[in-house]
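Dear colleague,

Following up on yesterday's call, I've attached the two folding results inline so they're easy to grep. Please treat them as preliminary; we haven't cross-checked anything against experimental data yet. The first protein's sequence and structure tokens come first.
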Amino acid sequence: MRGTVVSITADEVIAVRGLHAWGLQPGIGLWRDSGDMNAKDAYELWTRGLEHLAARRNHQAALILQKACDLEPEKGSVREALARALYNIGETQRAGEEFEAAMQLNPADHYPYFGLALCRARLGDRARAAGLLKIAIAMKPDSQDYRRALDRLAS
């Protein structure tokens, strides 16, 4: 059926939207409950979310990445991507919480420190933001983005 144009009625559109609202996801030829989703589905959601992030479709990315995070809450990469999407749509407090979770899951990753620093700066906590940026710079000294962020914060 891929590549085939299908005509559907308004009632069918409403029915499909209703299925999404109740947490059901399209399967191959059938609908399945989101409770049946697994790590493979979480990976597919994560990659789709990253594609939306790259295309600057941050609201769509946040929705998809939240579902991936619900399936795999212990994956720092999923939480980091969700945090980026949330930050980009202005959900700074929630973004900070997700960056914090990503930091806890993978303390050796420099990016969550940077992301949390941006959140803290946006929320007015410049001292904490500066400390986090210094940690990120120490972890990745060649990052000009991190240095510029610290310079902007200092000015």
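Below is the second protein, in the same order (sequence, then structure):
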Amino acid sequence: MSAIALSPHHQLQPLDAASATAFIATQAAQPLQAIPAAPACAHWGVVRDNQCIGIVALHQQQLTVLLQPQARQQGLATLALRAVRDWAFSQQGLNRLTAALPDSDKAGKRLLEKCGFGRSHKEYGYYDNQQDRCWFGIDLAQWQRSQQVAAQ
């Protein structure tokens, strides 16, 4: 996927694994296992004024989004997630996408629901046996139907 304009001042640009790993390392408040930095993982940076302010990763069928705190609540995560979701279904031929996040991440759950993902299941005590992890997913048929409805 090439660069995509998300807004007049923001782009979604492909990142190599080293750049993705460097960005993830700067986000100490976030669990580092949340975004795989393996070379087989596709990464995109959410870029403003030539500076990476967020990242979207797709590893196999699992999507992850991470934005710096000052970049949140501006609609950028929604735009970025929708762009990568659409690319994964229309260009890569994936049949399903998933995402996992802590049950306490209410904003993350709202983001996934806005992008058409539905809750599939919960893993109790996943994070240090203290916090639950919720899984969300969307399949190709659901995405295609949402595209048809949006076009009407």
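For the second protein, one point worth flagging: The chain has one domain: 4-151.

Best wishes,
A.L.
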